[in-house]
Amino acid sequence: MNLRDNREASKKPAEEPRLGQTNSSTSSLDEAWIHTLERCVNDGPLSQVILPLMRNCFFGGAIHAVRLLQMGHGDQLVADIAGFIMKERGRD
Questions:
Q1: Could you count the other beta carbons within 10 Å of the beta carbon of residue 65?
Q2: pLDDT tens, residue by residue, 23-77
Q3: Is there a contact between 1 and 7 (Cβ–Cβ < 8 Å)?
Q4: Integer CA distances (angstroms), 84 to 11, 61, 92, in order
Q5: Per-residue DSSP letters for 37-84?
Q6: Who contacts 9 (Cβ-Cβ below 8 Å, separation ≥6)?
Q7: What pLDDT does residue 23 have?
């Protein structure tokens, strides 16, 4: 089993960067999903329930973001994402 199968999740390492920061560039939505799993999901019995819901929300949000871009709302999308990242950094 691997993370691509959504059956197993790794525990996030303590040295991981904060939310919104990565050590490398992400070139696909699939890579972003794998990165999210590695950073945010701990292996446990609830993972079987949470992972499908988390995946639906992740890809649903991505589809919504693409739709906003297509409708010409890219500036607002960038502002929303930046606001979310700044809010998360304030919690640390």
A1: 15
A2: 567 778 888 888 888 887 777 787 888 888 888 998 999 999 999 999 999 999 9
A3: yes
A4: 24, 13, 13
A5: HHHH---STTHHHHHHHHHHHHHHHHHHHHHHHHTT-HHHHHHHHHHH
A6: 3, 37, 38, 41, 42, 43, 47, 51
A7: 59
**Residue with the two structure tokens 């996030």:** 12
With both helix axes pointing from N to C terminus, report the angle between 47-70 and 29-40 in degrees, rounded to the nearest 10.
Answer: 140
pTM for the whole structure = 0.56
**What CA–CA distance (Å, rounded) separates 51 from 89?**
24
Which residues have C-beta within 8 Å of that of residue 54, sequence separation ≥ 6?
36, 40, 41
